[in-house]
Amino acid sequence: MRKDGDGRTALITGASSGIGLALAEEFARHGFALVLTARRAERLQSIASDLAARYGIRVKALPANLSDPAAPETLFSAIEAEGLAVDALVNNAGYGVSGVFQDAPWSAHRDFIEVLMRAPCALAYRALPGMRARGYGRILNIASLAGFIPAAIGSTLYPAAKSFVISFSQSLALELADTGIHVTALCPGLTHTEFHDKDELRADIAKMPSWVWMDARTVARQGYDAVMRGTPLRMNGAHNALTAAIVKRLPNGVALRLIRAAMIP
């Protein structure tokens, strides 16, 4: 029986942990060859070797730092040198810059914008000509429930970046309708990963009830299914979908006052 990924290759960013690692396993399970990228070279190579052995697929580890504007082109040059074509692109790499906006150096915000906003666009732009030529493509952009929240105090750029990813994904999905290329923005809420392992986040995160959390494998499976079906937007979890719907319907001034009350002791 033919699998979705037979003869096809998926490029996954931020694949060394969390949702990215779970997505790498999900694409491997469906027969895709993999190109994995992240900053941690040793860990990435270990994951690549493990997935290749367990699923009998080709897995190439290409460490890269997506805060470097040249990284997307360098990645694609390396992929093409291997004789591979990107049939599925998963833009998962991401992190947060905690604290008040001006407390962090501009270089931290610049790198954040590169990784979470510019790199997904650059990688998609580079992947699309080949996808169009083959009449097949899958682009899965990992956004967040935060993309539906109008503001935040601390992690100032995070909701803005994720809102950008959602709008970009849906616009691209409309442009590519009937081309054989599907684009999906996946919007998880709180998910058990290393993302929240920063010291300044642990105290607040520990207060959250267990029912709001999802596991990375479930999020990955839902994301894979959504992009294969061609669903432009996928919220993970009914509780997150309900939260997004409520926030969307609140007057902006009311939403901002609620956020301020929740975030300022």
Structural summary, described in words:
The chain has about 260 residues and is α/β, with parallel strands linked by helices. It has one domain: Rossmann fold, CATH 3.40.50.720. Helices cover about 50% and strands about 15% of the residues. The chain has nine helices and nine strands. Strands 3-2-1-4-5-6-9 form a seven-stranded parallel sheet, with helices on both faces. Helix 4 (about 105-135) links the parallel strand 4 and strand 5 (about 135-140). Helix 1 packs parallel to helix 2, helix 1 (about 20-30) crosses helix 7 and helix 3 (about 70-80) runs parallel beside helix 4 (about 105-135). It is globular, with a radius of gyration of 18 Å. The termini are far apart.
Outline:
By secondary structure, the chain is of the alpha/beta class. The chain has helices spanning 18-29, 41-55, 71-81, 106-134, 158-175, 199-206, 216-229, 238-249, 252-263; strands at residues 9-13, 33-37, 59-61, 88-91, 137-142, 181-187, 191-192, 214-215, 233-235.
